[in-house]
Please model this.
Amino acid sequence: MSPTIGATSRYRVFPFSSTIGSNSQLTSEINHWTQALGLQEVRVNKLLKLLSVPSLSMKSKPVFKLLSVSAAIFTIAVLLVLFRTSRVSAGSESDRDQDESKVRIGLSIAPVPLNFEHRDRRLVGLGSYIVNAHADCNGCHSQGPATEYIGPGNPYLLSPPNGPYTGMQEVNPATYLGGGRDFGPFGSKGELLHLYSRNLTPDKTGRPAGGRTFEEFLTILRTGKDYDLVHPNCAGTPDGNCLLPPFNGDVLQVMPWPVHQHMTDEDIRAIYEYLSAIPCIDTDIPGAPVLRNDCK
Ligand code: HEC
Model:
């Protein structure tokens, strides 16, 4: 009995012949298939000729191979370019969307009326977003927690009947970014120096932080340079106007310029633009004439 393949198998190996009895039978099977495939090749080549594509014969095989390899490379390259372009444009679109929502939020949370005259509205909005939603400049550059919010608008307080908070935050416009919060006495033991946050509102020139140019402002945020030299290092006995070592009297203390220095130029420009658009405040604190601002 010759072994039977296919006849009893559920998955037939050869659809036309179910039995392979001997070697000669196997050879004739192989011949049959080679012939069949040959016929197929002839048919395919005829079709390709009709379509004027190089034939599949052994001779033209390398050309055909080369053509199909280059076609594949070309297709992959095109797909890659398409994919990248779509990703880049999707990326820049979402960046733009993000910027737009920051500008929108910034403009809606500014706690004081803004002067847009000669100002770039988009930069003002972005600056407000950084100042009021991120960097908390007013947390230090107002006169302190007791007056930073007006009573019923102070979110740190309880609501009635146990406290005044209405549920609506309200920043105090009378101290907003006007400076004067006392971070002193500062420095070494026995130090008398009072360290006040500065007035960031614009003066009569329209420039912020009491008339700073953008270049000065950029230098302050990048290096902490104190243009007013409010507290140089003490040369003699400490008198409350100088700073003892190891603190550097030439740079601003407390002010987080070592963090702000990592912001982009555009972000710093936006902060500058926003600070130029807020109302001027003349902050008068005894012993701190540097906080006075000439509004008119
Ligand atoms: C942690 C508190 C704190 C925060 C937050 C803070 N500052 Fe200051 N800033 C100060 C203090 C204090 C000084 C004065 C330091 C001194 O006299 O050595 C100062 C000084 C400055 C000065 C120098 C002013 C001048 O006329 O030379 C500028 C400008 C300034 N801050 C801008 C900002 C901006 C903009 C932000 C928010 C992005 C900010 N600060 C956030 C505490 C702070």
